[in-house]
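Recap slide: Puromycin-sensitive aminopeptidase-like protein, sequence and predicted structure.
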Amino acid sequence: MPSCPQSTEKKPFERLPKTVVPHVYHLCLKPDLEKFTFDGTVKIDVTVAEPTHQILLNAFDLKISSASFSRNGTETKAKEWNINKDTEVATVVFPNQLEIGNGELSFVFTGNLNDKLHGFYRSQYKTPSGEVRYAATTQFESSHARQAFP
């Protein structure tokens, strides 16, 4: 019986480093059901476990417009950030080393309400009178939350 060749190329699974550990997410998402987009802010209570200049987070298909780290009333704005589409990881780089201790990461970002039934997406329904309406829905199982917030 002939066998079909199978691709052995798989994206290797890698956990994020434990340099910065998240504890609590304070998340606000504002969907626009006419443009099928959303605006978001998130403040993440974190512990910096090792001194670092950069933080890695899961993120995919988002546009981050600002990123900062705060501790004891002092805010440090990130000097750059990017999201790698292949690994679905955001890298946020700070101008100074973040020292060990507790702090708060803050992000402002936007995204699209896709129609792919995962992440933060739009679903369509009809009213009893036949009017088409939309709702913003989530499917975060496995790794799809990264499509809604970093």
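The chain has no helices and ten strands.
The first strand starts at residue 20 and ends at 32.
(End of recap.)
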